[in-house]
């Protein structure tokens, strides 16, 4: 009984200001600590912890909250709960800081800090740790953002396409078709075939190469000595154009000039060409180059014309055998057929002429591009010569050595990349084989594991039922605990009651101050109103005297009456003054009475404090004596 009374009296004897002083007694307040505190708060706010802006929170709550926020943002777990523990005791603060300090070694923090340094707000040692934590949080945020952005782009690409992708797809489709057309038009076509395939194996390697190239219309080593590599392209275009023109001349029955073929070893090529036959299997009576060009360009048309010509010869022979009676009619039919053949040949000639014109235009374009290439070549040759002169001069030898080293390094890196890719492919194949082997082993062991899996499922079902029962029981207990916890939370604690009392006292003082100010305003207003009333009466009186003065001075009777009125006015003013002084004296007496009463209350308060102090001392003596009696 005495102990509880003493504890209540001691808690009431200390004011809230004293309690705040006791709570803040362990904080260092030198200038350097304050500078580090401001830097720490600014660093946390810049990192995104805006709770540090709240002025009502203590520096400890801001610091611990910021460190916890940085740790959780760095994807590390920490067992703290700051939701209802902002103003904790020293023991709770140290326990909280111990949990934070225990996580720092797991994060590989290079700075060491003790729990008492955080609890004591030693910001000289706290600032480097917070700075490192903020850096880790920002790096983790950036990595998470990059991963999230890549995942979002991947998910977007699965369902949607950007306009740039559609444009690229359209262009890619057109380019693919054009490339396919070019490859189909310019792919190598086999024009000849060797009649004796067994004799090829007996030839030497250069001869086999020459033979293979000639089968596809190419000539190995046939470049003229007086022309450069750029001129060979022009000669090839000219050969294609001459091949078309030669095909037209062959169809018309003209001979082909053998000077169009430029060969280094003409005898060897002729010998090889004699052993070849046309790839289409048709017998030719002209040179091999002419047969190749005809077969490659106009083979179908020539075959159709040959078949029509053979048919017409058969018809003519039948008509001659049938007699001379129908000679005129057969002659007419022959003329008509020949006219049709001439028309078709003219049409074919026009088609071939168009192709010839197209090839001529292509030849002109190639010649123009050849001229451009020659100018570029001359430019490049001059630049290479200048570069060789610079290299020989030795002024930029170090730069050239550096460039050569970089080129070698680039080639080495490319080789390493290729080796790494091949290694990765081999490793993928090996791992895939291991996976397949494991799958096979798993299938083999599947039959053996069925009984075990059945027993496991049975045990799992029993354990699951037991777990559900325990879970229901635990849920009931949790509901009971939550109900009791809510009832406990409904009862205010001593700190809350103290805070409520402090707030009520502040509110009472604020209301009393406002009431005093309001009373003063009312008193001032009434005083000013009375002053205004008296001044208005004085002004009206003076105006009346001024208005009636001339009229009163006109005669003696009016003058006497005017003086009597003035005397009455003066007597009235004197009476009002007497009443006001009497009222003032009464208010002064009332003030003195209230002052005496206030002094009596102050004496009673002093006596109360003195009595409480004496009572506290007597309670201490009572506790000491009670303890002595209990020991006996």
UniProtKB/TrEMBL annotation:
Record keywords: Coiled coil
Cross-referenced InterPro entries: CCDC93, CCDC93_CC, CCDC93_N
Residue ranges, annotated region (Disordered): 222-243
Spans traversing the lipid bilayer: none
Family under the similarity heading: Belongs to the CCDC93 family.
Recorded coiled-coil stretches: 328-390, 421-451, 563-597
Domain CCDC93 coiled-coil: 184-628
Domain (CCDC93 N-terminal) ranges: 31-138
A single BP term in Gene Ontology: Golgi to plasma membrane transport
Leader sequence segment: none
Pfam families named among the record's database cross-references: CCDC93_CC, CCDC93_N
Keyword Coiled coil carried by entry: yes
Name this protein carries in UniProt: Coiled-coil domain-containing protein 93
């Amino acid at each position: 009984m005495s102990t509880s009374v003493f504890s209540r009296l001691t808690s009431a004897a200390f004011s809230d200001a004293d309690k705040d002083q006791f709570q803040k007694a362990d904080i260092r307040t030198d200038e350097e600590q304050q500078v580090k505190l401001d830097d720490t708060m600014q660093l946390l706010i810049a990192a995104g912890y805006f709770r540090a802006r709240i002025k009502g929170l203590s520096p400890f709550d801001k610091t611990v909250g910021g460190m916890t926020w940085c740790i959780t943002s760095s994807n590390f777990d920490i067992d703290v709960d700051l939701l209802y523990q902002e103003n904790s005791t020293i023991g709770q603060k140290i326990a909280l800081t111990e949990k934070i300090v225990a996580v720092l070694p797991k994060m590989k923090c290079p700075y060491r800090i003790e729990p008492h340094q955080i609890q004591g707000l030693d910001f000289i040692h706290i600032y480097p740790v917070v700075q490192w934590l903020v850096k880790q949080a920002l790096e983790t945020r950036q990595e998470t953002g990059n991963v999230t952005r890549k995942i979002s782009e991947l998910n977007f690409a699965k369902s949607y396409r950007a306009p740039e992708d559609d444009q690229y797809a359209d262009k890619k489709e057109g380019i693919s078709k054009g490339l396919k057309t070019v490859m189909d038009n310019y792919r190598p076509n086999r024009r000849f075939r060797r009649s004796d395939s067994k004799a090829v194996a007996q030839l030497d390697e250069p001869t086999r190469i020459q033979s293979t190239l000639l089968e596809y219309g190419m000539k190995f080593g046939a470049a003229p000595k007086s022309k450069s590599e750029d001129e060979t392209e022009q000669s090839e275009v000219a050969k294609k154009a001459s091949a078309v023109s030669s095909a037209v001349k062959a169809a018309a029955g003209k001979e082909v000039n053998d000077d169009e073929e430029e060969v280094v070893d003409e005898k060897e090529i002729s010998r090889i060409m004699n052993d070849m036959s046309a790839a289409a299997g048709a017998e030719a009576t002209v040179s091999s180059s002419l047969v190749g060009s005809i077969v490659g360009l106009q083979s179908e048309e020539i075959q159709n014309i040959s078949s029509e010509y053979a048919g017409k010869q058969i018809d003519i022979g039948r008509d001659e055998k049938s007699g001379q009676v129908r000679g005129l009619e057969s002659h007419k039919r022959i003329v008509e057929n020949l006219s049709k053949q001439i028309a078709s040949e003219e049409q074919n000639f026009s088609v071939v002429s168009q192709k010839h014109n197209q090839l001529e235009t292509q030849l002109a374009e190639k010649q123009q591009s050849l001229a451009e290439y020659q100018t570029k070549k001359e430019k490049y040759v001059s630049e290479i010569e200048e570069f060789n002169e610079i290299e020989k001069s030795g002024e930029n030898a170090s730069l050239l050595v550096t460039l050569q080293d970089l080129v070698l390094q680039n080639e080495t890196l490319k080789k390493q990349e290729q080796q790494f890719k091949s290694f990765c492919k081999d490793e993928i194949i090996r791992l895939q084989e291991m996976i397949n082997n494991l799958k096979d082993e798993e299938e083999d062991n599947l039959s053996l594991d069925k009984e075990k899996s059945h027993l496991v499922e049975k045990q799992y079902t029993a354990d699951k039922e037991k777990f559900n029962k325990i879970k229901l029981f635990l849920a009931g207990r949790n509901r009971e605990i939550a109900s009791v916890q809510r009832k406990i939370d409904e009862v205010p604690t001593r700190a809350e009651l103290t805070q409520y009392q402090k707030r009520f006292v502040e509110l009472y003082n604020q209301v009393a101050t406002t009431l005093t100010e309001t009373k003063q305003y009312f008193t001032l207003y009434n005083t000013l109103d009375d002053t205004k009333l008296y001044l208005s009466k004085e002004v009206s009186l003076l105006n009346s005297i001024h208005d009636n003065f001339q009229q009163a001075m006109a005669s003696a009777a009016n003058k006497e009456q005017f003086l009597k009125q003035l005397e009455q006015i003066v007597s009235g003013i004197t009476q009002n003054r007497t009443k006001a002084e009497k009222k003032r004296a009464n208010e002064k007496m009332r003030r003195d009475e209230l002052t005496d009463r206030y002094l009596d209350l102050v004496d009673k308060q002093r006596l109360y404090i003195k009595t409480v102090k004496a009572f506290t001392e007597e309670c201490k003596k009572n506790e000491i004596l009670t303890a002595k009696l209990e020991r006996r």
